[in-house]
Amino acid sequence: MYSALRSKIHCQINKERWETNFPLDDWYNVVNPSGKPLATAPRSICHSGPKLLHRVVHLQVFDEQQRIYLQQRSATKKIQPGKWDSSVGGHVDLNEPILQALIRESREELGIQGFELNFLKRYIWKSPVECELVHSYYCLWQGPITPEPKEIDQGRFWSSKEIKENRHKDIFTANFLWEWDNLLA
Questions:
Q1: Which CATH number fits domain 62-119+141-184: 3.40.50.300, 3.10.120.10, 3.90.79.10, 1.20.120.80?
Q2: CA dist 128 → 20, 46, 48 (Å)
Q3: What is the pLDDT of residues 108-164, one digit of tens each?
Q4: Is the torsion defined by CA of 69, 86, 134, 183 positive or negative?
């Protein structure tokens, strides 16, 4: 199945041909479920439906009181604007190692670095917009957090009780709630 998909992707997505159509777009590796690169594609194509599996990283940041830091996605985001989401979440750049992407995204989004990473799970997340191979981690953080205002409207620590009380109010991303229910709670 994946060899046929690989051939189809290479026919449809040829970086040299498409660069002129997507010159300012970020490019990502299109991967198989084990993370092996099959091709490359621009962000806009990866986000044009749940067809092309591409890599992302998530980091769940906890404090000493076992509260989780959530970010409220910027109202200007195309995908799930204004929703509360994982502490850190971002795409893995073209040919970038997973841990390097996680450290980069943590520094860019929250201004944190130098933490101990703990692996949670790698899984596939499909939505009407995209299909992601998520690499999820968590850490304990005791220092300051400085959210990036272009990416995040606000951020704060939430208790388990607060998440439970608000989970049916449509304020969290579906992906965060899945991780909360299946990996964190």
A1: 3.90.79.10
A2: 27, 11, 8
A3: 999 999 999 999 999 999 999 999 999 999 999 999 999 999 889 999 999 999 999
A4: positive
CB 174 within 8 A of CB 83: no
% pLDDT > 70, the chain: 87
CA neighbor of 59 nearest in space, from 134, 139, 113: 139
**Overall average pLDDT of the 168-179 stretch:** 97
